[in-house]
Amino acid sequence: MLSAGQTHPRDRKTQMSNIREADTPIQDDEFKPSQDVIDQITQAIDDGDSAALDMLLEPLHAADVADLIEQLNPARRRTFLGLYSGEIDGEILSEIDESIREEVVDALPHEVLAEAVREMDSDDVVDLIEDLEEPEQQAVLAALDDSDRAAVEQSLNYPEHSAGRLMQSETVTAPEHWTVGDAIAFLRSEDWLPDQFYHVILVDPRMHPTGYVTLGKILSSRPQVPLREITEDSFRTISARQDEGDVAYAFNKYHLISAPVVDDSDRLVGVITIDDAMSVLDEEHEEDFLRMARVSDESHVSDGPFETARQRLPWLIINLFTASISALVISRFEATLSTLVILAALMPIVASTGGIAGTQSLAVAVRALATRELTSANARRVVFRELGAGLLNGIGLATILCLAGTFLLGSFQIGLVLGMAMIANQIVAAMGGVLVPLSLSRLGLDPALASGTFVTTMTDDMGFFAFLGLASWILM
Amino acid sequence: MLSAGQTHPRDRKTQMSNIREADTPIQDDEFKPSQDVIDQITQAIDDGDSAALDMLLEPLHAADVADLIEQLNPARRRTFLGLYSGEIDGEILSEIDESIREEVVDALPHEVLAEAVREMDSDDVVDLIEDLEEPEQQAVLAALDDSDRAAVEQSLNYPEHSAGRLMQSETVTAPEHWTVGDAIAFLRSEDWLPDQFYHVILVDPRMHPTGYVTLGKILSSRPQVPLREITEDSFRTISARQDEGDVAYAFNKYHLISAPVVDDSDRLVGVITIDDAMSVLDEEHEEDFLRMARVSDESHVSDGPFETARQRLPWLIINLFTASISALVISRFEATLSTLVILAALMPIVASTGGIAGTQSLAVAVRALATRELTSANARRVVFRELGAGLLNGIGLATILCLAGTFLLGSFQIGLVLGMAMIANQIVAAMGGVLVPLSLSRLGLDPALASGTFVTTMTDDMGFFAFLGLASWILM
């Protein structure tokens, strides 16, 4: 792990590839090997031709090799791992998706695994092993040097999804009294520096970070300049217990490039770099997006139909129950419906338009909670804003429905009932869309997870109830 | 603009703030000023006390000042700009949300605006002015030095949302034959260096980038080492015409920190840094999230009810029309419904569960398209996977419905009709969820934008049609 800065055992040279504009909407673009290369690789696997495989994979970026391994079907992946496992290095290993990580680690010969993890930074080792089973975890830990193992074990002591898991323990520090010249001499004399680092962190004698200096400033300043005179204003430390989502938020908001991580006594224990924060930001968004659509964020494009069905079924079953509530609401109005069957055809209009409005209001609220734009300070104002917007759109839609009722269905009264029910339901939708996620958030739950079910249940039930209730009263 | 590296006119010192764990779910956390400070600021604005305002805002990060300005109500914002406009610098200006940018720029005295834009990097100036009206654009351009104005105008010649708009034109380059010592001497002698830079880009005599060296490598290498011996394998150039979403994707996938941007003849024209790529990634996710919920990505938490209603109404009206199609489908079965009114109560179950399944399938497909995991190469396999999953879940739900029909409604036949309709609709949902976004993507349209409407229209219509059709056939 501390061999960072050395070149790789395999001399992986990514050609200078020019990222051209993607002109085909479905991207067979240059962010991955061409279909031609993929076909040749598949062929080499099927032929068991490991020499050809080495040659084809050598020019690829580790991220592309990892993507390729993920996208193979399980049988071919096994063959591939048999042929190629000797060539899998730390870079590829840290790019492999967690869904197949266990499988890949199991397939690696012991000495290959050992060499791969020794060249990884500690955060990548932590990321690799945190989801492995106990025996594989032990195998990886055993392959590390004592000091690296201690660093990894320290990270694993912090909660999952915390800054402590995300940080790398390799830090570049300097005493506060050093000059630029001291720092350069120190950096030249060390051979264990991390692969990527962007700041030299100033620490006091008790290892409390007190500021940091960018490498650009060090390079552009005279040797005699004291480091403390060229520190950055943006300096912030992050607690190792901080949630990784908050860390990503802070990086994005404050344009941080790297940030020192401190333990409970404010002592430096590691550093988080922006590339890891960017990955977390990406994952958190993905999770919210899928959760809003009631899909598990474990779902993966390489899953088979059984796995896919299993992941989605629970929310479908929940929907059977919530839809049954609507059925009960409707069944209360059987008398009305049997007198005027056209109401059965019209009632989904009110319910479904309410569902759309509820989802709109909900999506805005969930995002605003995530970006801290919706807080307890302005919650009241946002609720009133939604109420106003719901009322306005309700009136707009009601006008359309009154006209449609009069001129298309030949009944102003039916249009009026549709319109009044629509106003009521738009208000319920707007209120539900903001109050449900606010309440879940106050309870410490993820507002993206269950809000949709609550809100559409509300808009369905209110839609059917308001429409059929008003119809019973006005039309009967 | 080229004063980068200097300290700011106002000496904005962000205190060393320790990012503690957020323990309250609604975050009044340390990523923003405390409510107390916000209340004092509001008070100072209402009192017209600009001295107090200066004192309160001085310790805040520019991003927090910008957030504050955005969150003020319009009347108070005007008062604030009157009191504080003299203190608004380049950092604050580049953090201001585009929804109120015009208003802020208009309120700034000419010399304040001029000084603010002169200290900004060219990418921030481009970001600032690309959405301004012509007169404000001219005012900003006029404030720049000739060379900076040329750089900004060059960027503006590239399409919106392209790498050319995202890049900063300030680049740090070195001839290919330089050594580490040459580079350090050069960097020490220049005083125009960008605020943030992470690589020295090697260029040939015709300004074609041929590699780059991290600042960490320069600092840790002996002066006599040639730069070309310590270049990074990860080197990639980006075309200025590349879409910014693709750029963000490449940064995240390949862990880039900065990347040189080239024009059509492969000459270096600028550099994109990861913090800008991270912002783009964040915005693209936000856009997809809101679009899937049929909300304009222009919507903002500070919008009033009229603006909010106006943004959401179009999709609600579209839904009135699509829901009318369902009403037409249902009205074909009036005879059946009037004979067996309970069918009206049960029919939403099939339609709404289909809607959930369609949204699930759709969300997975939209994400997989965005992450390039769904391509023309594996589209067939994914479609079959969805078909299988839809069939499996259809059978599972049908089993539950048959049992519920038999034991709760006392009619196996009704359960059977519900179940058969459910299987049909789950298959339609699964197919629609993947084929609709694939088709939109092939047509060059954003699959997140309109897919939801197509898919839920399909599942609603199929749900009602299959259920009522089967009921007419089996139960009548």
UniProtKB/TrEMBL annotation, chains A, B:
Compartments in which it is found: Cell membrane; Membrane
GO cellular component assignments: plasma membrane
Keyword match Transport: yes
A molecular function (GO) term: metal ion binding
Keyword set, alphabetical order: CBS domain, Cell membrane, Magnesium, Membrane, Metal-binding, Transmembrane, Transmembrane helix, Transport
Protein name: Magnesium transporter MgtE
Domain CBS: 230-287
CDD domains in the record: CBS_pair_Mg_transporter (cd04606)
